[in-house]
Amino acid sequence: MHPRLTTLILALLTSLLSAQTSIFNAPDIEPFTYSGPSTSRLEIVPVEAQGFTRAMRLRTPDGLPATAAREYSIRVRALVPTELKRNDWVLATFFVRATERSGDTAFVKLNFERAVSPYTKSLSAGLPVPDEWKRYQIPFQIAENYNPREAYFDFWLGYDPQTIEIGGVKIEKQETGFNVQGIETGYSYQGREADAAWRKDAAERIDKYRKADFKLTVTDANDAPLQATVQLRMKRHSFAFGTAVVAQALLSSAPDDLKYKEWFFRLFNSAVFENDFKWPGFEQNRTRALTALDYLRDQGFTMLRGHTLVWPNFTYLPADLRTLANNPEAMRQRINNHILDEGRATAGKFRDWDVLNEPIPNRDLQNVLGDLEMVEWFKKAREADPAARLFINEYDIIPNAGANKVKQDEYYRLITWLKEKGAPLDGLGEQGHFGFTLTGIDKAKQIFDRFAELGLVIEVTEFDIDIYDEKLQADYTRDYLTLCFSHPSIDSFLMWGFWEARHWKPQGAILRRDWTLKPNGEVWRDLITKEWWTNADLKTGEEGLATQRGFLGDYEITVLTEDGRSKTIPATLVKEGTTLTIKLD
Ligand code: XIL
After folding, report:
1. Any domain includes 563
2. Nearest residue CA, atom 16 of ligand 1?
3. Does residue 221 sit within a domain?
4. Are strands 162-174 and 54-60 parallel, antiparallel or unpaired?
């Protein structure tokens, strides 16, 4: 074939493969309209040397209400004039800059949502807005079918006072062969750089809080020091690295379930059941739940998490709770009986219990019984299972750029209040479901530090990152996990599932359907089983002494002498350091 023709055909193919259609007839900012307080309005301003000529300028005024609705109390949006189908890929491109801001960074959130309740979101991407023009390109998939004018593109601006300009908006449906991994989103997070300052501090804290010294002396039967080889083999971390699991999979021998267990045992030393110990799940199949719990205990799992005794939203509760809304006394009894029943059935088997899940947005029970009833739930849980550490658990504390200050304050206040009122509360859970908007590492640390002041144990309870950019996902997994492992108040880090085929957000998994590890899985495996793992072969010195700094956890120590004597013992490296004498007969 003539080379020219080949080039032509190739060009044609490429353009066909990357075909896209603009969703708006009027390009750019034309379709967007303002809604919000009258103290602000939409201005159109000229722009130079950016490839677009005009931008929307929006000033977020001071004094917006301090509620969750604040975010969307000021917005510009555009109705989608075309039809879109579930799973269609759309690429949203736009430029933003901040000409005024209050804190370190200005902030905007781009949503694609159903125009009417329940406002189903295909995209909700909170984005930091720098002072210089920045291009974002955000690919996402449509969640449901839409006729023309049934969905909105919607920029939310209800954050701290700021002035933001948005221009060069292009919203295009991608036709075929769209390679999402190839898109330069322009999105990252503070602290991603290899030489970011936080890394050194975190490494020092990891050495200080997660490691200690073994001092091992080898003697003969008469306490005389011996020359010997000492093999240290780490067996298990004392820090909990866990995941959500499914009872049915743990109890099955189907080929995928065997793989599921194999990978679970390889990568985790702790677990939480995804749905089996929630109130409805437990009522539906208590035997299965308890059998799976015993199975994990038999496999040596001592750092298990119970989730959750009370998730106070009628949607997540047994159906009859709703019918008790007019009968507070019956509702109270029903809840207390449940806590005592489930707590006693599992007593001594969970190290931790989420007594109360997501109490800030979910208030169906508190609205009937009053807030003090939450204190009672904790007391009942303690009564049922006196040894378990009792937790409260909440989402959107660290994620989304840590921008939800209102919720952070509410969580902080609620915990303080519960303690004041005498709730036996030992720890707080920070779920850690990340979406498009990651949180800078310094910001995440600030928020953890603030909650650490409450003097409770902190656990990351439900980590996942629901984004398609696998490199970004892997980098953030590495950095967030490192930050958390280095934080003295945190003692557990649990993922919310690990296998794509059993994951509530399949994109968040670390293992693909075909059981290959994704880049975020490689990061997890390398940190947990290699970098933060201690194996060493030592020789005792003059005094029969061998020392080694290692990660806290359980070990097997084998001593070998040249004349062929040997002994293997289990040992635990504790925070204070572990000093042992190993006597050979
Ligand atoms: C989710 C499960 O993953 C789903 O399978 C279930 O349908 C709904 O609940 N916060 C929580 C978890 O505390 O219990 C939720 O789990 C995810 C959000």
Report:
1. no
2. 274
3. no
4. antiparallel
